[in-house]
Design brief:
The protein folds into three domains: 50-200, Rossmann fold; 205-422, ANL, N-terminal domain (Rossmann fold); 429-523, 2-Layer Sandwich (GMP Synthetase, Chain A, domain 3). The protein has 15 helices and 28 strands. Strands 4-3-12-11-13-14-15-16-17 form a nine-stranded mixed β-sheet, sandwiched between helices. Strands 18, 19, 21, 22 and 23 form a five-stranded antiparallel β-sheet that branches. Strands 6-5-7-8 form a four-stranded parallel β-sheet, covered by helices on one side. 5'-O-[(S)-[(2-aminobenzoyl)oxy](hydroxy)phosphoryl]adenosine (3UK) is lined by residues 186, 232-233, 303-306, 325-330, 334-335, 349, 405-407, 419, 422, 514.
């Protein structure tokens, strides 16, 4: 087989992907487009000059050569605190092409988090956008051993100076499909973040299985993701997926808000929009006073946390469009169970993405019968190889070809996977497993409720019961009658043991940087 190529079997079934023995993933994602005649096509758009596939290939080479000129060792980690902009692409792919390992970091983090990651990764270089200087520089001055190379993306003395001095030609470093390629730090709701090590092959596998297999992505698509590139979800949405099919990515550097998203959609007319449930809810509220033209969008995607059925329905009523909820993870890299165009149902995660395998197991390690809930394990070609520096967590999570997602699921009568919560958020009420998420979804249906979180609390008898924390649309609605009103609402549809026994009205819910409710912080 020719170097750096892969084949997908004739039926185009995602199950059979064969990689050349020498496979550096930068070649099929960047250089292939020149061979295929796409040099003049726009690869990246936004509030900067359009970047064509020709420009992209050249800048990737310059960036790879710039890193080489620093004298990094092969496999050196390059930490990136970089905003969504074309330089993110240059650095990520330039590092990979030159044989280094880029590690994009969540840009919402603070100095102590970065300090940990700099020390944990043993990185040789840190590259950051000036907007994040305060936190990054505070971390760098606190670390015990400074990485040898510290570069800014923008401004004088930035990487641009090194890049313009470097050659625009670069031979891809030899690699194999299963070599370490890039890392992402996985942020659990508890414990230290874990460096999640992905191989070269994981990138094309997610594109083939999900982007092409489920979304039917093609060259004409234009992708816009409210989730940023540092998040595995955004990395696929707005970088690796469009680069696989030769489509166009639209980038916005700032934080996403409904107004910003509507503006981006009207300006750049994406065909696929990737959001998260919290943003879809905020966009619905914003549409009370705005009528954005969303007609370019052929697919709305949601991931990161479960999409309540009520948001799905309201979105469909308001826009006529369907939101395709799918579950992904940093470890599996992208979405592995999903709703699909023409095969979707409100309130469920959908079906297995073709190419992945799933099993739901009980406490004894046996597979449950259809309809019963248990721990969801997944197998497939894009699962991280291991956690850096963390053999215990690797052994507990990744077992043979299978990975424990940490999520509780059951399959409904139609075969759809239904999310019940994280394994550790599940509660037993009267001996029955009870999903906080199901109760939250019910509460959110109530017109006065904006957000809800449900946790386990022991009553006077030390028996576990659900407790609700509620953010109201209009705080002045809080009043003596409201608890009863919400309870009546729960009685309409929820099993008795699931009724919240306590209601707390709060201004906001504790969330992780990526928007997941931190239920452990609400537990008394
Ligand atoms: C939860 C969901 C219900 C679930 C991600 C798309 O979220 C992503 O990765 P993370 O590592 O978190 C993984 C965990 O988040 N989750 C994500 N999506 C859903 N729960 N319904 C969903 N649709 O607990 C999962 O284990 O931050 C999402 C693509 C790539 C990703 N990395």
């Amino acid at each position: 087989m020719r170097d750096h190529t892969l084949t997908v079997d004739a039926s185009n079934s995602p199950a059979d992907i064969v990689f050349a023995p020498n496979f550096n993933v930068a070649v099929p994602f960047i250089d292939r487009h020149l061979e295929e005649g796409r040099a003049g096509k726009v690869a990246i758009r936004g509030a900067f000059n359009d970047v064509t596939y020709g420009d992209l290939a050249e800048q990737v080479n310059r960036c790879g050569n710039a890193l080489n000129s620093l004298g990094l060792l092969p496999g050196a980690r390059v930490l990136m605190m970089v905003a969504d902009c074309p330089e993110f692409f240059y650095l990520f792919w330039g590092a990979i092409k030159a044989g280094f390992v880029p590690v994009p970091l969540n840009t919402l983090l603070r100095a102590p988090d970065y300090q940990f990651m700099i020390e944990d990764s043993g990185c040789e270089a840190v590259v950051y956008s000036s907007v994040f200087a305060t936190e990054v520089e505070a971390a760098l001055s606190a670390v015990s051993r400074k990485p040898p190379h510290i570069l800014r993306i923008d401004g004088e003395d930035g990487i641009a100076a090194l890049m313009s001095a470097a050659s625009g030609k670069l031979e891809a470093a030899p690699a194999t499909a299963t070599d370490d390629c890039f890392w992402l730090y996985s942020s659990g709701s508890t414990g230290r973040p874990k460096g999640t090590v992905h191989a070269h092959r994981d990138i094309p596998v997610t594109a083939i299985y999900y982007a092409v297999g489920v979304l039917g992505m093609e060259e004409d698509d234009v992708c816009f993701s409210a989730a940023k590139l540092f998040f595995a979800y955004g990395l696929g949405n707005a970088m690796t997926f469009p680069l696989w099919v030769g489509a166009t990515a639209v980038l916005a550097a700032g934080p996403p808000s409904p107004a910003m998203i509507f503006d981006m959609i009207e300006t750049y007319k994406p065909t696929i929009y990737y959001g998260v449930p919290t943003l879809y809810a905020a966009q619905l509220r914003a549409m009370d006073d705005a009528s954005p033209d969303l007609s370019s969008v052929r697919a709305y995607v949601s991931a990161g946390e479960a999409l309540p059925g009520d948001i799905f329905r309201r979105w469909q009523d308001r826009t006529g469009g369907v939101i395709l909820d799918g579950i992904g993870s940093t470890e599996i890299l992208h979405i592995f169970i999903s709703n699909a165009p023409g095969d979707h149902k409100p309130g469920v995660s959908g079906r297995l993405v073709p190419g992945y395998g799933a099993k739901i197991i009980n406490e004894n390690g046996n597979e449950v019968s259809r309809g019963d809930s248990g721990a969801l394990w997944i197998k497939g070609g894009s699962i991280a190889k291991y956690y850096w520096n963390n053999p215990e967590r690797t052994a507990a999570t990744m077992q043979g070809e299978w990975i424990n997602t940490g999520d509780t699921y059951y399959q409904d009568e139609d075969g759809y996977f239904v999310y019940c919560g994280r394994n550790d958020d599940m509660m037993k009420v009267g001996g029955i497993w009870c999903s906080p998420f199901e109760i939250e979804a019910k509460l959110i249906e109530h017109p006065k409720v904006l957000e809800a979180a449900v946790v386990a609390r022991a009553d006077d008898d030390e028996l576990i019961k659900p407790e609700a924390f509620i953010v109201l649309n209009d705080p002045s609605d809080a009043g003596p009658g409201l608890e009863g009103e919400l309870l009546d609402h729960c009685k309409d549809g929820l099993a008795r043991y699931k009724y919240p026994r306590w209601f707390n009205f709060v201004d906001e819910l504790p969330k992780t940087a990526t928007g997941k409710i931190q239920r452990f912080k609400l537990r008394g």
